[in-house]
Amino acid sequence: MIQFLELSKLAPEQLARLMRRAETDIQQLFPLAQDVIDQVRTGGDAAVVKFAQQFDAKDFSASMLRATKKDFDDARNALNADVIDAIEKAHDNIVKFHAEQMPESMWFTEVQPGIMAGERITPIASAGLYVPRGKGAFPSVMLMLATPAKVAGVPKIAVVTPPTPDGKADAGSLVAAEICGIEDVYVVGGMQAIAALAYGTETIPKVSKIIGPGSSYVSAAKRLLYGTVDVGLPAGPSESIILTDETVDPRLAALDLLVEAEHGPESAAILVTHSREIAQAVLDVLPGYIAELPEWRQAFIKNVLSNYGGVLLTNSLDESIQFVNDYAPEHLEVLTAEPFITLNKIQNAGEILLGQLTPIPTANYCLGLNAILPTGGFARSFSSVSVHDFLKRSGVGYLSREGYSKLQAITTTLADYEDFPAHAMAIRKRNEIIGL
Description:
By secondary structure, the chain is an alpha/beta fold.
């Protein structure tokens, strides 16, 4: 049964459950994740292979850990030309968008005469990209991770992606990696992949940062390795809000509600509207659309729309917008008469797609925006993956004699107040040495 909820009538516990989505309590996975991490840290490749055999492909061996040139060639030969063409065209758009994000490599401002302050922007030394495979193949995720990493200029990029049952990487993901200019693809997934990137093994390199969406097991490993390695933004089960007024075609709203719901049983998908007529029309057409999908996708959608989403009726467009800002969805579609006016009121969303011709699937694949987005309400404080995830800033300062003279008394006064005598001495004795 598809949930139909009225915001004004929700009990506090009902609203809290809706806001939590399918938040998985990953703490129960910590003991298993810690065991896997410890074994990979001490056992290296042998431990990674053992867990790959246990969780992914029973005939997996150490020789299969790294994708070979033959694997890349076989992958390209296995794909239809139209699929390769689509990946290439999507890549072009994603490159153009992310190239526009690149900041100047260095900037300075003159704070006062003789006082220069600025920043130097450089890429991180290495990055590990996690491309999942669990419920399907995701060359789009490869594009969304590898493209900004390459545009940012990261010199060492290692991709990990789970093997198929025959022990190979997904063909589409390999082709996408090749199009992005990625050579180092390691056929390993799950907790063992995160541990391998964090500590390094005989085959898999240690990296400075790991980024990419994954299962609750991957999330548990990342949580435990926080502080050992930078684990990037929180990216959990998919979620969306379709925000509408009375002007939307309910058939389009219903279609787009299904998009993120089909990702998996823990996804969240909500249509939010103040129009009871639109709400009812969407509820009327949804069953027919769901029936056209494969049964295993139907099962995901039915679970999502009966537990973690459905249709939510509010009293006004402003109330709908307030709910959106409180929920902070990963994906937001704005299907209102004046979407750009509505946009001005949106504060929290991983991405905001405007109008009936800008659906989530196009943004997921080829619009150019990055589709690796914060979930679970983290859009309140996190942003989508971008070149900035692969860059770091170093403050740069320079003082002339004139500038130093202006600041030395301020420096010693504050150093004395904070009781750092060596700080103050470095200034006072410098004054004697340089003859100030």
